[in-house]
Amino acid sequence: xxxxxxxxxxxxxxxxxxxxxxxxxxxxxLVSRKFMLLDRATRVSLTxxxxxxxxxxxxxxxxxxxxxxxxxxxxxxxxxxxxxxxDTDPQLLAHRLRRAFPAVTSLTVYARSPLTIEILVQQWPxxxxxxxxxxxxxxxxWPIGEDFVCLLEQCENLNWLDLSTFYxxxxxxPPVLQACPKxxxxxxxxxxxxxxxxxxxxxxxxxxxxxxxxxLKNILVACNFDPRYIGFVGDETxxxxxxxxxxxxxxxxxxTSTLTDVRGDPDNxxxxxxxxxxxxxxxxxxxxxxPLLQELVLDVGRNVRDTSMxxxxxxxxxxxxxxxxxxxxxxxxxxxxxxxxxxxLCSGLEELSxxxxxDLTDMGLIAIGRGCSKLSRFEVQGCKRITEKxxxxxxxxxxxxxxxxxxxxxxxxxxxxxxxxxxPIRDRIQWLHIDCVWNGWEEIGxxxxxxxxxxHNQVEEPSSLFSLMGSEYDHxxxxxxxxxxSDVSDGYILENNxxxxxxxxxxxxxxxxxxxxxxxxxxxxxxxxxCPNLEEIRIKVEGDCRGRSKPSERAFGLSSLTLYPRLSKxxxxxxxxxxxxxxxxxxxxxxxxxxxxxxxxxxxxxxSELDYWPPQxxxxxxxxxxxxxxxxxxxxxxxxxxxxxxxxxxxxxMFLLKIPNLRDVQLREDYYPAxxxxxxxxxxxxxxxxxxxxLNRRPILD
Length: 702
Prior knowledge:
Elements (H helix, E strand, L loop, with lengths): L8 H9 L4 H8 L3 H10 L2 E3 L19 E3 L20 H11 L5 E5 L3 H10 L5 E6 L11 H9 L5 E7 L6 H7 L1 H6 L2 E4 L10 H10 L5 E6 L11 H10 L5 E6 L24 H9 L6 E10 L3 H10 L5 E7 L21 E5 L6 H10 L5 E5 L6 H10 L6 E5 L6 H7 L9 E5 L5 H7 L4 H8 L3 H5 L3 H15 L6 E3 L5 E3 L6 E7 L7 H4 L9 E9 L24 E10 L12 H9 L9 E5 L13 H7 L7 E4 L5 H4 L10 E4 L17 H13 L5
Parallel strand pairs: 1-2, 2-3, 3-4, 4-5, 5-6, 6-7, 7-8, 8-9, 9-10, 10-11, 11-12, 12-13, 13-14, 14-17, 17-18, 18-19, 19-20, 20-21, 21-22
Antiparallel strand pairs: 15-16
């Protein structure tokens, strides 16, 4: 009988080459020696971990690697070519890398100084794709453009450059692009969406960049649309981008104020005090000049009014458009009568994000659901006039395609209302974000016990909205509603207490926003009680702890997530939680006590991967793991990967050695400005190296 080993090596090599998941490839390589050799021969992407001082031990068997990531070497954020713990010549280490990975054409590296870039590009002058990472500050003593001169002068084949996580000055880039016209003309991808910018690229700089790079297909830029600032982006800049780069398929222009992951004011009506200098006539001309667009993001941060007519042109001028994200655009869909208008005419859209639209109503959502029938992802944020009825009706219309939904900062959509609004796709949805706003959650919890008849009454509500759209649409809605309602029992399970419980069959990823001081425990009662396939959750905690009294409960509520049997990955982001890191005023809690509140109960979860962002004290730029947090994290006995996005004392980190199968731990200061020097034991290169050495000395059972 033939076995898999009888398959010719050529076919096996093609099978291996088609597998991109790292863990799957690692598992396959352990099957046999033959599989191990095939994996090494066909692996094209590799991320190096470990300590920079051990680079002399790098493997030499992955000769086919073309995509190499060096940005996660430890100690994180230090220049690995000049490690403080190694006296090895940087040129020798770089040469060693070149010998081990001769075929590299794509490189990601943490470049603390221009010297790192200069040394590495000498080893791989044929680089085509480069991503630079740096969260530390740029030294004022460096000449303008020093980070990019060697890169563009020596890598003549460069066509892809990502600076989204690289801190530099906006005036560094345009002169270098202009001085290297051949390389600039060959660039097809340029990501300048740097989140650490205060003001972003000025209008003139964007014109210079797009003039120097006429063949760009993808460009992402952080800029400023506020007309009160010098160099703001307006009509003239938009037309210059369209004229200079007519081949664009992806365009992302975002105001720097929109790049922070902070929830807006829920009481804001969606309109800002200032209007952007972007007119509807310019938008029509702008869209007409970019016929190849497939993805468009315009997150302006200032009012762009009466855009319905301009957005109608997208369907005719940009026929390949599949992804559209608009921020602070108003009048996108008027929905005055049964005839579709505005954004609802973009029938080819597969992903749509609407942010801070002050006049979007339920009728607009229904029109979008009717017109954009291919949507697989829909995000709505900061839209105060929409309600559960409109969003639920839209979900009914898009039941066959919609699998990813984000609902955030919408005044009429608390947690329970958001969950009810996506019930028509409850058995299909795979990705979901909601805000944990518990308006009257006790009553909601009781309503979960009323049985199946409650759900039938809820699903019939949207018909009243459809009656306003005409008899034809009312008939279509009733047909879909009847078809959906006939299978209602398929999505419910009978609990031991005798009541029906909603089941989210395919939900794999859940994202939550919650205000500081609130509890997570009402989540199951709000409607997320049964999620058998939920694997990953992200929790964003935001707010100011200063001035708040001690919470009434001991724990935030992470233990309530034990209801989800397959939950193995978590991102707990407290980075926007502000408090006192050192000494709090009398009667208030410092951040160590808040961390105890947030992390209490995390040991009850069966997590294998955890990303944790500690809360911060902005006054002293302090984000550090506290003693209670370290002790509570040490109770996660099934963890294999732990990434702490902040600093920590060495003796606190030693608590983590109690986790038996922990294999990968790293402290990452991936926020701006990352601390340059710490006089305590936090983040010292020697401290990190000692901890990693102790971690690697332990035997791992598997």
